[in-house]
Design goal:
Layout lengths: L2 H29 L10 E14 L7 E13 L4 E14 L8 E17 L3 E19 L2 E4 L7 E13 L4 E10 L14 E15 H7 L16
Antiparallel strand pairs: 1-2, 1-9, 2-3, 3-4, 4-5, 5-6, 5-7, 7-8, 8-9
């Protein structure tokens, strides 16, 4: 492995570990608020479409592609909360004309965001997004080629968005812009800098509230009885 690439990879992994530790600490702190009247966490499913492009690559146009996945919302109080998601996302760019290539990137994205509720329904949110590339394919005319080795496997993004909940948080809509923070190109050539830029429009649906699920499925959460333990 090239020494420069190894150093870059080590820096990215250090950032990932630091951010992960902060998220764990925030989640642990929030557990104490559950008994103080804060709403219980919820788990839901969401999906929508991306308006995606690659910044720094001039020979392209915007690509429309889907995303879908799961989300959870955890309250600190009635206004401030943490929202985390895991999304299967199709990105890249479309061909600018009949004589240029298109790029299809597939990511597993994990945005972890602080969300502030502006009243009961409207909210704003921002945080950090970790992107893990699954595939990268280029298409020129009728020829397709695998170009995953030209891109980095991990991407960091800055999500900034607004959302609206309705029917007691059973449904929600979200508009979010994700700004790529790091160069996703593996090339060391000067000026070869490319960033993912994605506008996401999503619709979400509540699957269950954690408190209700624990109440209706006590066996999943209760400690084992003496009879269930193996004999010594």
């Amino acid at each position: 492995m090239n020494l420069g690439n190894f150093t870059k990879h080590k820096i990215v992994m250090t950032k990932l570990k630091t951010i992960s530790m902060v998220v764990v600490l925030l989640a642990a702190t929030n557990l104490s608020s559950f008994g103080q009247g804060a709403p219980k966490p919820i788990v839901g499913a969401k999906g929508g479409f991306n308006l995606a492009n690659i910044g720094g690559d001039a020979d392209n146009s915007m690509k429309i592609a889907p995303h879908f996945g799961m989300y959870t919302e955890v309250f600190f109080d009635y206004f401030l909360m943490m929202q985390a998601e895991i999304l299967f996302s199709f990105q890249g760019h479309a061909a600018a004309d009949d004589f240029s290539s298109s790029l299809n990137l597939t990511y597993i994205n994990i945005p972890i965001m602080a969300r502030y509720n502006l009243g009961y329904n409207l909210n704003v949110h921002t945080g950090i997004q970790f992107g893990f590339m699954l595939s990268a394919k280029s298409k020129y005319l009728d020829e397709k080629s695998d170009v995953k080795d030209q891109f980095k496997g991990i991407e960091l993004g800055l999500p900034i968005g607004v959302g609206y909940d309705f029917m007691d948080r059973k449904f929600n809509v979200t508009a979010r812009y994700v700004i790529g923070l790091n160069n996703i190109s593996q090339s060391d050539l000067p000026g070869d800098v490319r960033h993912n830029n994605v506008l996401q429009l999503s619709f979400g649906m509540l699957l269950f509230r954690v408190n209700d699920y624990v109440t209706t499925h006590p066996a999943l959460w209760a400690p084992p009885s003496r009879e269930d333990l193996p004999a010594l």
